[in-house]
Write a structure and sequence with these properties.
four-stranded parallel beta sheet; 4 strands; about 55% helix; about 10% strand; globular
Amino acid sequence: MNAAKLFWWPIDIIGCHLVGPSFVGGRSIEKVLKTGQELKKRGYYVTYNLLGEHFTNRESVELTVRTLKDLIRAMNNSNSGNVSIKPTQCGMQISPVLFHMKAKEIIDCGKKAGIQIEFDAESYEFIDHTFRVFREFASKLHYRGFVRQCVQA
């Protein structure tokens, strides 16, 4: 285990077990959507966001995109929310071109289902590329209302 993983591992364990149940909706699409439905009943707006980032292999990227599209297609009026995409989870660390292609797949799926897709500006290292791809989609009339940008301080 490298130093970074060694440092974050206990924090992840504590966060997921003590605080996580408030923020981690489940380990399956069905469970996450059930949690989303319960939160919506209590008056919350829901953003669905898969855990994990900084993927460097295409198989993980493909699995992420497939999972996000399955999540979008499984939503209904009682559990719908917006879906967050993380650039490095969707191919940015491999190639900005790959991220653009995968973002388009997810946005098109979301648009078809009436679900907004939120770009998560997760890392300063990729922020310029993230904003560039976001602006490209946001500037197109047929994507207006379906893409949004999340920015952390």
